[in-house]
Amino acid sequence: MGVILTLTMVLMTGLAMTRERERGTFENLLATPATPLEVMTGKIVPYILIGLIQVALILAAARWLFDVPMHGSLLLLFAVVLLFICANLTLGITFSSVASNQLQAMQMTIFFFMPSLLLSGFMFPFRGMPEWAQAIGNLLPLTHFLILVRGIMLKGSTLAELLPELWALLAFTVVVSAVALLRYRQTLD
What we know:
8 helices, globular
C-alpha cells in the first residue's frame, strides 16, 4: 500500500503542476487573488480522493484475495493513510516547484522513490541495515508508514502506541509543505 501510494501520489502531483506551468495555465493561477495555501489545497484534494480509493481497493484485495488479517481499527488506519497521502502530495508539489519541466519532476520522483524502497524496511529488514542507512531511512515517510500499517493491521496497535511514528510523519509533511509554500511564488522566475 505504501509503495503504490508513494509512487502514484508524488508522481501525479509533480507532473500535474509542472504540466500547468509548461502550458501557461499556471500564470493564470498566479494572477488570481488565491493564496499559495489555497492553490496547493485545491491541487491536493482531488488526489487525496484518488489515494483513498486506491487504499480501499488494496485493503479489499488484501482481505478477500490474500486473507491478510486486520486486527486494528480501520478508522485509525484510514487516518494514518490520509496523513501519508498528504505527505506524499506535498512532496510532489515541492518537486514540481523545483522542476522546470515534467521530465525533471519525474526524475526527482524516481530519485526519491528508489531510496524509499530500499531504505524504508520494505525490501530489507530495517534493523539489519547499517546505521547510516537507518538514519536516511528515518527521514523517509514510507519508513514510518510501514511501521504504522504493520502496527495497526497485524498487531492491533492503538493511537498511543503509534504516536512516535505519527509525529515523524507529521513533521515531514509540515517541513515539506513549508518548502513548497516558500518556493511557490518563485516558480515562474
